[in-house]
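Subgroup meeting minutes
Present: P.N., E.W., G.H.
Scribe: E.W.

1. P.N. recapped why we're keeping a running log of single-chain structure predictions: easier to compare across weeks, and new members can see raw inputs and outputs side by side.
2. G.H. added today's entry (789 aa).
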Amino acid sequence: MSWEGFVAWALLALWGFSFALEADQKNRHNCFSFNGEPRSYTRFNLTQNMEGDNSQVEMKLSSDMEEEAEGNGVGEHMNHHPRPSYVSKSSQRSPRNICFMGIAILLLFIIGYLVGYLAHRKADKTYPSCAEDLAPDDGEDMAPIETVPSLDWSDITAMFKSKLTTDSIEKSLSDFSSDSHQAGSPGDEALANKLMGRFKSYGMNPWTDEHFVRVQDRPTSGTNKVTFQNKTYAESGFLSYSATGSAQGAALYAYYGQVEDLRRLQDLRINMSGRVLLVRAGKITPAEKVANAASVNAGAVLIYPDPADYSFERDTDLFGHVHLGCGDPYTPAFPSFNHTQFPPAKSSGLPAIPAQTIRASTAAAIMKGLGGDSPRGWGDGGLRDVVYKLGSESDLIAVEVNNVLTEKKIHNVFGVIKGFIDADRYVVIGAQRDAWGPGYARSTVGTSLLVELARTFSEMVNNGFKPKRSVVFASWSAGEYGAVGATEWLEGYLSSLNMKAFSYISLDGVVTGSSFKASASPLLYDLIQNTLKEVSSPTDANKSLYSEAGSNWEVMEPMKMSDPAYPFQAFSGIPSVSFRFTSDKEYPFFGTVLDTKRNLDSKVFNLRVLTKTAGEIAGQMALQLVHDHLLRLNVEKYTNTIRSKVAQINKEIISLQSSGRVPKTLRMQWLMSALGSYSRASRNLNTNIQNSDLDDYEQCRIINNRIMGVERDLLSPYVSPRENPFRHILLGSGSHTLEALREHLVAIKENSASGNIDLLRNQFALATWTIQSCANALAGSVWEMDNEI
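Output recorded in log:
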């Protein structure tokens, strides 16, 4: 009998018994009641314990009550009324009544059993087991209902690889290629609408995120200008967010404009104040070049593509931005929603000096007229008929920048496949949609892969795959201006995103060569490695990507501010990864209108296969993150990262204390202790995982919450997101980071004016406690910690 049947039987039996008992009682004498109340009962009497303040409950049965009635008011009241005479129970229960009660109980037992049996049969028909196929009754013209058994990991990966095909990728590459789709343009909006249509066709309920952002575009009429030796060069390229106006100074060739390049010029006793720096594109971003130039008080910066690095025509224009940051720089740390009125503000990463790109032909004309010395090692450029010289004080050059600040409406487009257990936890897969020109490698490949992954995951769900967590597919706009669309979304939902989004996977620029490289949070290193072991090499299907290059293959690179995943990692504290197939030399067509399919094909052999491989990498990382009970994020990986930073700091402190430049009272003990706390907490968590029942989903959820908090807890709580948006103390930027602490020690060693012992102490204390707080949170609940943590 089923549980429902048993309950039905029990209720009917009890009802029958009460019915029979009532019939029996009707034959008894009415003296069983006193003033309409039952004579025999149980009563709870609350009496106060006068010797203490506690109350106690006394249970008085009928016999006690009768004795009590003899000596209280109730007894006195009863003395005014004659007591009724009690008739014995045995005299009232005749054999006839007993027989009647037995028959009634037996009859109701039989009825209850039948009701339970029928209920059980009905439940069997209504709720079949997942393993059964329901066949229609004979004579009924119905299609059989098929149920899909749960899928294991090998089934899931096999299904994924079979549905992600090169033919479907090729079609999407064709559908989403566009010659013009600059952020906020009609071409950009057309692609957004097409994405919405695709997501809807996959059974999703897509939505858009609208922002009104301010960006800097080229002059509405005319061009920016560079004047040298009475000749003016009109430049069609531009750098968004440059300071506008005019600047004039002596030209100075500064190689790539890196910190070490400027330091070399300082070693040569060259005063760079007010100079117009001529630098080559590449190595670092334009924003970093301009920031470095501003740090030595240069007057302006000109950036050109040297033919040694860029294999295109000498008259090709370059485009980019010089905001040393991400997002709309005029709404720092808060979102540009619905024309929201904020007080005037701007990012500290905006440059104060003009910056402009110039063509290689313009650079050659300027370089030919420069005087000065020839720098050792810096003359390896490809400008024809040019001797590379540093320039002299008399080589005056004027720069005029007339960029226009405009407001644009942009749309981010989203689709989601909801999880079947933890729908409120999600991995985000994103790709930039806009570009300066065709942007085939920059945005078309990534957008097409985003669409194909959304289609593939949707079809997998329709065929029985049930992800435990959700997958969000995001198409960003205004990526060329510094991840504006993505950053504005993060700023708008920061309070919830770093609690719910446990990973971000970027698809921007995923194919520009054949060598695999990745930048990621250390938490994701193991996931990347395991994924590469499961994905076949695009050149040899019998080898995995992991084994193709042997054990010495180093694929991980530091995550830079220009990385599309950087704001997710350093601003929001979401473990993130961006990866790409690349080559030893940078892809030369980024930031130009020459980023076309033809040019990408000329640099990449078998583009379709490489794109499919990139899709498999992103897809299988996402699948594992949403399929497993336990998030595959290894918290112990951060131990080595912290240890490396602490070792560098310790080395500098020992050196400075031995020379007396730093007091002995500044001790490394507390920073070392924080490192030890994190190491123990991460190690203990992994031990708990090994000893846990990973089939217990609630236990896994508790562990996952601790894992998800690590990246968020490494964001310094002691600095303002508005002033220092990239608050991550290990991967971010600003005075709160461990790298800034090391650099401050170096500045003190070099007797720099920026060295300050009191500021150093403050940096030291806050960085230490940030790590300690992260360790405390990782260790679990406060009652589970020991003194060592």
